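re: that chain from earlier
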Amino acid sequence: MKHMIIVVAALLLAGPASGQAPQGRPLVIEDYYRIGSIGDVQISPDGAFVAYTVSTKIEDDNTNAIDTFVVSANGSSAPRRITHERDSVADPIWVGGRTLRYSTQARVPSGIFVGGGNGAPAPPANGGAAQMFQVTVDAPNASPRKASATPPGVPSPDGKLVALASEQPQPAPAAGDETAFEKRHEERFKGRSFDWMRFQQDGRDYPVPDPRARAAGEVSIGAAGSTQLKRLTNLGQRPTGLAWHPAGSTIAFAADEDWRIEQTYERPDIYTVTTEGDVRRLTNDGYAWGSLAYSPDGRFLLAERTFGTGMIIEQKLNHGGSDDLLLWSVDAPASEPVNLTANWDLEPNQPRWSADGTHVYFTAQKGGTIHLFRVAARGGAAVEQVTLGDRRVNSITFDRAMTRMAYTVGTYGSPSEVWTARIDGSDERRLTDVFADVRRDIAITRTERLTWRSSDGTEIEGWLTYPQGFDRANGPYPMVVFNHGGPHAAVGYGFNFKQQYFAANGYFVFDTNFRSSTGYGDAFKWATWGEWGTKDGDDVMSGVDHVIANHPVDASKVATMGHSYGGFMTNWLITRYPERFAAAAAGAPISNWISDYGTADIYRTKETEFFGPPWEAEGLKRMIAQSPLMHAGKVRTPTLFIQGEADQRVPSEEAEQMYFALRRQGVPAKMIQYAGQPHGISGHWNNVHRMLNELK
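^ sequence. v structure.
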């Protein structure tokens, strides 16, 4: 399964080798609008073509312009741009062997804005509602034709039926008995009134509608293209992930029986229903189930299983458990399922059956990489890694026969391009060269992988990007330490404009996958349970020491920055190691876990990884101990705080508390709040404005 061609091919897009000076001019902030991105990669069902989009940032109106291309999967012809009446198109999707459906709406806003505000994008440049058309790609002179409306639901194996979770009519609310006087004052009320717990959700208007008032869904089927439906279930739940059995007689789905109880955490179980309406429940064990798929021969049902949050709390676990793929026998559904990844310590994503049903393919993070893996569909088999190399293989898409795949390749040395290979990873080739001019004209500085031992001996992985024009004799250089969000996420191979921007301005840029990062196994991921900031903070600081000991870094000119959990880590580092940092930039940073508990839209992390809410002694103790605000008296680092005004994941008061604490002590601090922005501050104008201020 291991093919050296993959490793060699990956190096084609890598940055300059160690010791080589990058060619071209230094990157400048204006290049932000020059460097686009590739997305929507899809191989055609017959494996002959690959469709993809190229997104270009438009400064004038703060939008993205989308162009769609098609290229032959064997690389025999150059990419061809798909247009509609000479205009660009977007949202490509294959609807037949070589028939491509697309949208005429090829100009989209660059960010999410809640209620307008600074940086709000203009309407799409081509205006009007999007229309859907389709064209046969191997007939270049064929005229596009209006695409029929996509039928809702999941088509049956023979295409004659569709299955969907149809919402059921809600009973009309009973008429009130208010007096005319009471009605007048109700109509005059200006404000908000709500009586449900989950009243906020980042990126949505406040308060969000009562989730208990949503209509229940039931599994229904109907003839393709028909509006007449036959209801199969009567569970009063909201089914998701519908999957047909190959025989077309049974549908599997996931649903949570307690979805209307606001005090419970989501815990979807597996159900099946026949086309005659016979319902069977397969699980009721506290786990969360999803990613359902029947094997091609119909003998097995594949499912992904993770620990349910409620189960973690009820059992008072000090870890979050594993993420596994399991097989249920269709002939013996009451038997114990087979765990295909029981002896594998990473996290499978997007599982898919091979065409012959002998293997299940999936992607997973492995350290700073992302690759394709497979496992034989029988118990006890070892997981095999299919793709190799120091890179991230993203957006994998397969042909119908599961013989060929297309994907993007992420490296530090270039924006991602489109690649293709056989399903076993062989015959790999690059299909696009969209960013050849970027690699030619701009001196993208090299990035080096590092490993070191943390304070307790744990091995940590990180990456060091060198300053533009690096020459050891010209050192020492300043350094900025990046901290990723999550915390259960990971950084790794992929072009990062902001890091290259700092490097182009003379900085070393240091990035770490501290403990709690994904891609290193369960023990590593859950190592910070109960004390966020302690072990992972040690991991960062031991890495800083390692870099300073081995590279010409000016120890008096080290800065730290990050967003979300990276913002918390920034706050934590400047309180615990105040003498080590000359400057900091904390984006959406938690400073006080107690105030965050009831004002943020995500509370489960406190009830699990802090061992309880703040009114329980153990939870309160840990929230106080791990809150940067409680240690703010030690801070001496000038700090920039960056916040979205509409952030409901880490509310703006978190940054404001830390900002005030610093200013109260005379420590230089500045606040930037972006109007209308939720947690993930976005929009091109905002991104550029933010980078300019972070560099100052």
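Residues 1-20, 115-126 have pLDDT under 50 and may be disordered.
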